[in-house]
Amino acid sequence: MNAPQQLSHASQQRRAFWLRHLHQWHWISAAMCLVAMMLFAATGITLNHAAQIEAHPAISSKTGKLPSALLDQVIVARNDDAAVLPDTVRDWLIQELGIDTTKQAPEWSPEEAYLALPRPGGDAWLRIELDSGALEYELTDRGWIAYLNDLHKGRNTGSVWNWFIDAFAAGCLIFCVTGLLLLKMHAASRSATWPLLGYGVVLPVLLIVIFMH
């Protein structure tokens, strides 16, 4: 085998190596991101048309009264300017009223403890009167579209979901970069590759320059 043939064979081997690995990472990232990508694409549409999508918030409320022993613990926590309600109080709220304060920091005042309890797709708050132990809870549910929209934005979703969004974004980058490299490797036999890619770059730039002021 002469030198040109050896170079050609080595080049083919390198091409086959990169094609195999790029295809592998491309389909793996696609499989891992598929469902989440569909969710984020769909909620991108609902967010873009939020003004046209009519919402019907459902508001529910609960009232109750803390046992005196638990109220004493709340007062002690207020005097100590505690960051959260005592564990026993939070456990009682979950067991008796189904209210999960999720270690939310209360706003202390001489008269009451107030907890803002925002959540995806809605809002809630809890107020505990420190003189009587009377409590009031209100929950606002804005529906499943608002819930999915908040997942898209990472609004009031907690650190675990935010980590997932970061991991999902990394997976999408892998999918896009491997796709671009595969386009480059196949471009010689697909003449429309670079014009279509250029169209995908130029169109949004033109829209920004012409229509956004």
What does this protein structure show overall?
It contains 6 helices and 5 strands. A hairpin with a 4-residue loop joins strand 4 (122-129) and strand 5. By secondary structure, it is of the alpha+beta class. The model has no long low-confidence stretch (mean pLDDT 90). The chain has helices spanning 3-48, 68-79, 87-97, 144-153, 158-186, 193-211; strands at residues 58-65, 107-108, 112-116, 122-129, 134-141. The protein starts with a helix and ends with a helix. A 5-stranded antiparallel β-sheet has the order 1-5-4-3-2, with no helix packed on it. It comes from Undibacterium griseum. InterPro entries: PepSY_TM-like_2. The chain crosses the membrane at residues 25-47, 160-182, 194-212. This is PepSY-associated TM helix domain-containing protein. Keywords: Membrane, Transmembrane, Transmembrane helix.
SSE layout and pairings?
Layout lengths: L2 H46 L9 E8 L2 H12 L7 H11 L9 E2 L3 E5 L5 E8 L4 E8 L2 H10 L4 H29 L6 H19 L2
Antiparallel strand pairs: 1-5, 2-3, 3-4, 4-5
Helix pairs in contact: 1-4, 1-5
**How far apart lie the N and C ends?**
64 Å
Helix coverage percent: 55-70%
- Arithmetic mean pLDDT: 90
Low-confidence runs of at least 5 consecutive residues = none
Order of helices and strands: HEHHEEEEHHH
Shape: elongated
- Number of separate strands: 5
Number of helices: 6
Question: Which radius of gyration do the C-alpha atoms yield?
Answer: 28 Å
Strand order of the largest sheet: 1-5-4-3-2
Strand count, sense and barrel status of the largest sheet are: 5 strands, antiparallel
Strand content of the residues, in percent? Answer: 5-15%
The structural class is alpha+beta
